[in-house]
What we know:
This protein is of the alpha/beta class.
Amino acid sequence: MSVxxxxxxxxxxxxxxxQTGLMRYDAACRAISEALAVDEIKGIHDKAxxxxxxxxxxxxxxxxxxxxxxxxxxxxxxxEIMAMQRDAGLLAKGGQGSGSNQYEVRDTDGPAxxxxxxxxxxxxxxxxxxxxxxxxEEEFEARVYDYRTRVQQEGDRATADxxxxxxxxxxxxxxxxxxxxxxxxxxxxxxxxxxxxxxxxVDPASNPMAQxxxxxxxxxTAETDGxxxxxxxxxxxxxxxxxxxxxxxxxxxIAEYKAGNVKEAIMLTHNSTDTKWFxxxxxxxxxxxxxxGRVKFVSPKGEFAAPAMGQAFSYFGPNPRGFTExxxxxxxxxxxxxxxxxxxxxx
Length: 347
């Protein structure tokens, strides 16, 4: 029996015991967190909404609150997947409802982008999903817990408060995190890179504000165009994530490293494993750290925001062991075998 079938196998009546309700709620939450397909999550969402309505008729406030909380979690998860699909170029621009698609041009042979209606998501669900996904996880969990305890007394007001939190967070959170904006790497990660590299000779994709943290000997901006300049020595880079810029920066780093101009480098990107540019990074670098959690980038106004997907630090150089020791603090490090690189270069 599927989770959705199990959840709906018993309509919540007023005499349901607390253990039964908790089991149903926990099972639904686990299913949502583990689901990767929108249709699967939407199935749980629709069942939970129907269950909440049935519980309301049965005057079972606890079950109603639990099923509404399941619905909120499902909508948040849909929002997260929408954002991941948008960032990976799998969501058609016209299907996003608002905002720009920083991966509008894909460099992969994968499927063509789809629209929200093709995913079975209307504009109202999409709007709520984006708002819930914009709320930081800890705050969302606290608000859902608060909702479940308040709903018996305050009803719809608790729902409105959760949506209001999403609207506030959305203004400065991941829906605005696109290739059109400047976002800086937190000092913690730059210092880890400095520990590995010893010094930063070149930052090819930067600006004066970011250099307050990076302090590279030479840096280039969008105006001075680092793609047209030589990269010599030790390089740190958090390039623009928009297309086709990220492809050009990846190609340039690989070429400069193979030519011997770049002696050592660390590049921060999304872990877009379905793209050709990330495949090139993986095959050419000496080690990669896949972050545990998402990097909370910093805006020019000092606001923190996390994109919808995880990040990766790609290391080029003779000291993958040192990189592993340092960056294991923030993620899982994969050291790439030399024979794999040699085979790639020979091809």
